[in-house]
Amino acid sequence: MVFLRRIWAFVVRDWHVTISYRMQFFLRVLSVLIAATTLFFISKIFAGSTNLRFAEWRDPLPAWLTGLAVLNYFMTGFSSLANAIRQEQMQGTLESVLMTPITVPTVVVASSAWDFVEATFFSLLYLIFGWLFFDVHYRGSTSLALAFLFLTTLVLSCLGILSASFAMVFKRGDPFGIFLGTGSALFSGVFFPTQLINQYAGSGVASISKILPPTYGLDGIRRVLIEGQGFSQVREPFVTLLIFLAVLLPFSLWVFGRAVRRAKKEGSLIQY
Amino acid sequence: MSESPGDRSIGVSIDHLSKTYPVPFLRLKKLFRRKFKPPVEALRDISFQIREGEIFGLIGPNGAGKTTLTKIIATLIQPTSGEVTVRGSDTVRDDAQVRRNIGLATAEERSFYWRLTAEQNLLFFARLYGLSGSEANRRIKTLFDMFELEELARRRFAELSTGNKQRLAVARAMLAKPPVLLLDEPTRSLDPIAAARLRSTISSLARDGENRATIFLTSHNLVEVEELCDRVAIISKGEIRALDTPQKLRATHTRNEEVSIIFSPDVADDVNLALRQAFTDQSFTLERASRDERWRLNFSREAEDATLDKVLTVLHQSGAMVRGVETKRATLLEVLEQYEENYRTDAGGEQS
């Protein structure tokens, strides 16, 4: 109960901060609409000529919109905690938060809670704009797609915790952010099938996509939502994500605890 | 019969505490032969205890180690060696329990969310302390009344004056009614009336019967420390130089006090003569106090000896009417300066 109350406290706080910047919110909604519209027109270039080898890319617009919606969510899972920690350090509020009887895992979950609320809204906005204005339809099990989304986001949150640990100790220059931020868009199949990397860049480069959790998340979600596949057909990416989670969750929490202790030893909690 | 602080149980215990800030990434710097500054020794072998319900003051010059010590008690910095316990809980091993028992108010304005109102800020922190919505609202209302912040409740933190931000920081420290309060320069930016009111509040918190708080106060306002604190520690270069009641600290510095007596009419010559006859080994100075017939007689005496009484008798016998008497004892500032001077002398002696 107290745990939920604390998470709620962070959500309400961030909601208040967000609505104090109303203009920014409306501009973000507008930018999603503009991006969806742009992709609609680009997709018309490929109408009827898409290679049938990639079933879910027959009409690239649903694949792109799903890709962008999911990438937005994944990136939140990955970057929100590090951003939250960095922002609290810059504002000078991190000490005040850590002065309360709040545990490290609670800080981890609560700091990103509002970002997930916001990411859910904007990710849905991509799909809703596609359905509302560009006749994009989805099929398959929504709950299975959500399970994929949840699982992949959890895995990315673990990487986000590692990134936040880096921010806690080194303050800036986070290598996870650079690798995953730019790497996911290129290697995880957000805009094109990952098989093309193998075809054009060789198996060595293509193997990068295999070590990125978003590759499995995006693959699973597209196969469920666009192809209508069931759990038995998407078991492999699902299990892979579970293995990622089992390894990364305890490791990232351990690293974060160490990072907080180190910052306390150096007295650098509010330095940035 | 009132209970003395010595009869009470321990609120905060500090045992052989030392803190040296490590050089970040020392191994890497050595590996790449990069220059680095030596580690900073902020605190050295500090030990003292604060009893429950006691107001304990820590004074010292800038960079003496006051903030480091406060943050170690608050679990925000880990000590290099030694132990700090708050109501029996260790600040490193049992930090969550310690944080339940303490409230920290710093003079750091950046510790609040500037886009949120005063009320939203307190509500956020109240929830982190685990208070339910109704509990939090009740508590916040009480604190707003106590610190006269009701009218500012819906104003953004960014719009508050420095003094009001300071008051809000103290209010936040008291949200969960912690038994131990750490106050880092609580009245620094307050106007004299607000500062006096806050001092009165702080004083009453430590005297509030069963719920009395243990208060650890750092301040540059030495008058405030003298007024509020049961005991005071003087810290310099990370070491405790002295620790006692304000009265005893002053007395260890000097037992003398300066006395100044204003009298009229113009009978200075008679007074001078009578004083010479009455006192053979006491020096006096006489000066005009104003353009009228008032004179000022200055002398020093050992606190509470019979000199003042005898001087007053002499003045009466000489036909003078006493208009005012002022006494000035050593202040904590002078005590602090003395310790700093002693430290510099000792350090200079050791070096030579």
Question: How would you describe the overall organization of this protein?
Answer:
The complex is a heterodimer of chains A (272) and B (352). Chain A contains 11 helices and no strands. Chain A has 272 residues and is an all-alpha fold. Chain A has one domain (2-266). The longest helix of chain A has 32 residues, at 60-91. Chain A is globular, with a radius of gyration of 20 Å. Chain B has 352 residues and is an alpha/beta fold. In chain B, 37% of the residues lie in helices and 26% in strands. Chain B has helices at residues 26-31, 66-73, 95-101, 118-128, 133-146, 162-173, 192-206, 222-228, 246-253, 268-278, 307-317, 332-351; strands at 10-21, 40-51, 55-59, 81-86, 89-90, 102-105, 180-184, 214-218, 231-236, 239-244, 256-264, 285-288, 295-302, 321-329. The longest helix of chain B has 20 residues, at 332-351. Chain A binds chain B through residues 2, 5-6, 8-10, 12-13, 16-17, 20-21, 91-93, 95-103, 261, 264-270, and chain B through 21-22, 24, 68, 71, 74-78, 80, 96-97, 99-100, 102, 104, 108-116, 120, 123-125, 127-130, 132, 156, 172.
Q: How is the secondary structure organized here?
A:
The complex is a heterodimer of chains A (272) and B (352).
Chain A (H helix, E strand, L loop, with lengths): L1 H18 L2 H24 L14 H32 L2 H5 L5 H31 L7 H29 L4 H13 L7 H7 L1 H8 L2 H13 L9 H32 L6
Chain B lengths: L9 E12 L4 H6 L8 E12 L3 E5 L6 H8 L7 E6 L2 E2 L4 H7 E4 L12 H11 L4 H14 L15 H12 L6 E5 L7 H15 L7 E5 L3 H7 L2 E6 L2 E6 L1 H8 L2 E9 L3 H11 L6 E4 L6 E8 L4 H11 L3 E9 L2 H20 L1
Parallel strand pairs in B: 3-8, 3-9, 6-7, 7-8
Antiparallel strand pairs in B: 1-2, 1-4, 4-5, 9-10, 11-13, 11-14, 12-13
Helix pairs in contact in B: 4-5, 9-12, 10-11
